[in-house]
Amino acid sequence: MVYITEWDKFVEQSIELFRADPDSTRYVMKYRHCDGKLVLKVTDNRQCLKYKTDQAQEAKKMEKLNNMFFALMARGPDVDLSEVTGKEQMDAQPTKKGRGRKQ
Amino acid sequence: MFYLSVSILLFIVLSFWFPSTRPKQRPLSFLHQNHYISTMVLLQLDPFLNELTSMFERSTEKGSVWVTLKRSSLKSKVQRNKLATAGEAIEYRCLIRATDGKKTISTSVGPKDHQRFQASYATILKAHMTALKKRERKDKKKPSEADKREGGSKRQKKS
């Protein structure tokens, strides 16, 4: 199993994998505090996509992916994801401003 | 500026809210600890979040926490076939399972309550994923050197 190195690719492929077989695809997050590592995995028992990181920044991206999967799984695979991501971006903007980009 | 203060306030309120609700669950999980080892317990949303929080707290020294999301109808194959032949729609929910390798807990969210849950879930993750590296304000200063230093001071492989 090879880890996918680009986040966007991982997101795109994992959503694709889920939509191809919603009933047998699962999304797993593993967090290891003592090593400061985070591993994400999406698999349908035939294909396995993995992504690992140790960056706090990536955890924020993961939150977005979490929300996408919550929506996909709770509301169904046909849910409009742009709605989910759009909302997220609106939520994220104020914090970005707060971080002092202007300074 | 207004948004910032609102979001900070919300975070403070949430972070106070979670620890304050936890002690209620503690005695219960302690009593049934042996029970948890062999079986998976389907919990309500708030007990699940409380238990997840203590899982994160228990695994700071060693160990990992796994959280799995899966789409599920929470019904057996037989039940599903029955519904299918009767021409009824199968209701799917999002099943959430968490384990630290010793005990497993689970809960499920439907279309109506997943948004509330995912917000609380994100707050818990944010509060406990503190071992991840913060990116330095590198902007123009050499980022490669900082990375090398980080890599050089590797943590012990075995604990």
**What is the H/E order of chain A?**
HEEEHH
Q: How can the largest sheet of chain B be summarized?
A: 4 strands, mixed
CATH architecture of the domain at 23-130 in chain B: 2-Layer Sandwich
Total beta strands of chain B? 4
- Based on helices, strands and strand pairing, what is the structural class of chain B? alpha+beta
Beta content of chain B: 15-25%
Q: For the largest interface in this structure, which chains are involved and how many residues does each contribute?
A: A-B, 41 and 46 residues
- The strand line-up of the biggest sheet of chain A is 1-2-3
User: Which CATH architecture of chain A is right?
Assistant: 2-Layer Sandwich
CATH superfamily of the domain at 23-130 in chain B: Signal recognition particle alu RNA binding heterodimer, srp9/1
GO molecular function, one term (chain A): 7S RNA binding
GO cellular component, one term (chain A): signal recognition particle, endoplasmic reticulum targeting
Region (Disordered) (chain A): 81-103
Family (chain A): Belongs to the SRP9 family.
Brief digest:
The complex is a heterodimer of chains A (103) and B (159). Helix content of chain A is 50%, strand content 19%. By secondary structure, chain A is of the alpha+beta class.
What are the SSEs and their pairings?
The complex is a heterodimer of chains A (103) and B (159).
Chain A: H1 7-20, E1 26-32, E2 37-43, E3 48-53, H2 56-75, H3 81-98
Helix pairs in contact in A: 2-3
Chain B: H1 2-31, H2 33-38, E1 41-42, H3 45-58, E2 64-72, H4 77-85, E3 93-99, E4 104-109, H5 114-128, H6 143-152
Parallel strand pairs in B: 1-4
Antiparallel strand pairs in B: 2-3, 3-4
